[in-house]
Amino acid sequence: MSMVPVLIAGGGPVGLATAVELAHHGVRSLVVEPRETVSWLRPRAKTTSARSMELLRRWGLAETLRARAPLAVSWSDEAVFVTSLLGREITRIGGCFGLDLVGSDLAAEPGQQAPQPLVEEILREAVGDALLTGWQVAGLREDAEGVTVRIVSGDGEEREVRAGYVVGCDGPRSVTRAAIGARYEGRQDARPNFNIVFRAPGLAERMPHGPAVHYWVLNPAQPGLVGRLDLKDTWWCIAQGVRAEDADPVRLAHNIAGAEIDVEILATDPWTARMLLADRYASERVFLAGDAAHQNPPYGGHGFNTGIGDAVNIGWKLAAVINGWAPAALTATYEAERRPIAADTIEAAAANMATLAPELADPGLMGDEAEFEKVRPAVAEAVLRTKHSEFHSLDLVLGYTYAGSPIVADGAGERLPHRWLAPGESLYDRLGRGFSVVGDRRAPGVAALIEEARELGVPLQVVDLPGEPLTLVRPDQHVAWRGEDPAGALRRALAHA
């Protein structure tokens, strides 16, 4: 029986990110994933948030993603609301998804439009031979010393792998969630949706609306949203309110475009939005992350980005325990910190979903010019009023906090406030892979923290900012403590009794 410190069930972006985080701290893992290759016909998520990009920067992967993304961050930060792709413009919203944060002190990285398959491919490359494809986790048995995991290949061969810990990133039908006796709580939206990926040569050149992240089509006959997957001829579309049994993909593409364009359907995918949260995230040695733990509607672009946050949180904690500089109790704080974030994200995404293209569409928009101009101001006002928060959610993306966590001091828990120290040099770039103390290194508390770190065997980086108060920063860039007297701060941050 093979042995591995951490086995990760599922090699989507969250499972891969967990493996990258563990490797970042020198811990081996095995990612078990049934898909041999990544399919570009199911683009899924398309927004990598500013926070996820900061974490990719931390792993040295942000520039790789930007270089390979089909749409540069400079392409657009606008959502345009139209009667059809070839029709009239109603209004537009700028500064979407943190795509306008280039050079801003708010973040080390702006957001990036990139299809999920590209993110997965880059993470697969980073994980390397830790990824086992063509196999899936079929069951597991947990005991006091570890977890015995049964994996099955596509042709039915079975093996057992012994792991110290398991992270379940195996999606909505999670085997790991069932194995620890957890279950989803929540609800499903009643409205159907129908995704289409299509090729439409020459469509972009005919459009009058210019570049955009999304085009929201407010045609009552076929509302939906659409965007470009690349700067060639490939597009994605969500036809809202369409059941699979009623869907004619070519007709839907024509309706969204507003003309009988030349179209080749590449893929279709019916779905309904779910607002689900696991009632528990962990046992002693098995942890849930990503869709195995939570599902939310896609509106706002929070889906896999929330899972990346899960991956980093459980990843650094497992690494600290495995590397011997934290007690096992540290991993018990994962659920306390991440489950409330998922609950807030589900609530925000559900609020965004309350008003979609069908609710915003008005028959008058499709009339002659006089009818259009009569209703356009009211529709535009409704768009700006109801959709602003969907596209401007930095308070959730960058502002979530672990305040109240048992390993966070009073008045701490937020992401370390970002700043640029020099052109292109982020404060985050100076942080260590373990803990960091940021502030004036001459302050008495620095020596105390260095001594405490030495006693505990904790890697500690000192980031000297003359004249600045002291801040103890965790490996995930969140503040564990700030003040003058750090007595016991590092012990608390690592869940020492």
Secondary structure elements and pairings:
Elements: E1 2-9, H1 13-24, E2 29-33, E3 47-48, H2 50-58, H3 62-68, E4 79-82, E5 89-93, E6 112-113, H4 116-127, E7 131-133, E8 135-142, E9 147-153, E10 158-168, H5 175-179, E11 184-199, H6 203-206, E12 214-217, E13 224-228, E14 234-240, H7 249-257, E15 264-278, E16 286-288, E17 294-295, H8 303-322, H9 333-353, H10 357-360, H11 369-391, H12 394-397, E18 420-422, E19 425-426, E20 435-439, H13 444-456, E21 460-464, E22 470-473, E23 479-483, H14 489-493
Parallel strand pairs: 1-2, 1-10, 2-7, 4-12, 10-16, 20-21
Antiparallel strand pairs: 3-6, 4-5, 8-9, 9-10, 11-14, 11-15, 12-13, 13-14, 15-17, 18-19, 20-22, 22-23
Give a description of the structure:
- This protein has 497 residues and is an alpha/beta fold.
- It is built from 14 helices and 23 strands.
- Among the domains are: 2-70 and 111-186 and 275-352, FAD/NAD(P)-binding domain, CATH 3.50.50.60; 420-493, Glutaredoxin (3-Layer(aba) Sandwich).
- It has an eight-stranded mixed sheet, with helices on both faces. Strands 1, 2, 7, 8, 9, 10 and 16 form a seven-stranded mixed sheet that branches. A four-stranded mixed sheet has the order 21-20-22-23.
- Helix 1 runs parallel beside helix 4 and helix 8 runs antiparallel to helix 9.
- The longest helix is centred in the C-terminal third of the chain and has 23 residues, at 369-391.
- The radius of gyration is 24 Å and the shape is globular.
- The chain starts with a strand and ends with a helix.
